[in-house]
Design brief:
Length: 230
């Protein structure tokens, strides 16, 4: 199990290097590095740190959910940034030059929703053991997961795909009754549920910290030994 997870970690890191290089190349071609280097280069690099840390955790502690969450955050953020740059290049910089432009534009419509939820809600809720503080906190996971999934699906089915500094593209998967989720009553309810889950997750992390005693050490055999505090 450990060797397999190590290979997975190395594979994800290789994917990160290639994906980030392509994202930077497209950002330069689109002129975004010159206009806004922070958004075009530094923001994806910051999220890439999640993937690097996640890979280290997966390689050493594959049973810890936090490692996989960090990997998911890094991959989703990289894919979202890459899709955004790809769509801009295909629709604005050199229209019609790349295949699958509508797929990239569609991905930008929803990919950041699970990225933000995993970062702000699930990370503090499950950190550092990969489990909730107690079984009583599991409903928070279900509420946050359900609200995030619903928000993501509605975002993927919106009628139009808006590109930065580009045209509005018709969504081939649009459902007419959905509309823009951010402007709908359903969207407001889902955002409210996510914000409540965020507050609960932060509260859970504070409680963990206040109860903390000692270090989370590992035994000589390499298997994790849970700390008393968590």
């Amino acid at each position: 199990m450990r060797s397999r997870s190590t290979w997975v970690a190395w594979g994800l890191l290789a994917l990160l290097v290639v994906g980030y290089a392509v994202e930077v190349f497209l950002s330069v071609a689109n002129g975004n590095v010159e206009r806004d280097p922070g958004d075009a280069v530094l923001l994806p690099l910051a999220f890439a740190a999640f993937l690097v840390v996640g890979c280290l955790i997966v390689a050493r502690r594959p049973g810890n959910t936090v490692g996989w969450i960090f990997c998911a955050v890094g991959l989703l953020a990289l894919a979202g940034a890459l899709a955004e740059q790809y769509a801009q290049y295909a629709y604005v910089t050199r229209p019609g030059s790349l295949p699958g432009a509508v797929v990239a534009a569609w991905a930008t419509a929803w990919m950041w929703y699970p990225t933000i939820a995993l970062t702000l809600v699930f990370t503090p809720l499950l950190f550092p053991t990969g489990r909730t503080l107690s079984p009583r906190w599991r409903p928070v996971v279900w509420v946050a997961g359900g609200a995030t999934a619903a928000f993501t699906v509605l975002g993927a089915l919106r009628p139009s795909l808006e590109l930065q500094d580009g045209p509005t593209v018709a969504n081939p998967l649009a459902v007419g009754a959905v509309g823009n989720v951010e402007d709908s009553a359903v969207g407001v309810v889902l955002i409210g549920l996510i914000l409540l889950s965020l507050a609960a997750a932060v509260g859970s992390l504070v409680i963990r910290f206040r109860r903390s005693r000692g270090d989370d050490a590992s035994s000589s055999s390499g298997s994790p030994t849970p700390a008393r505090c968590w």
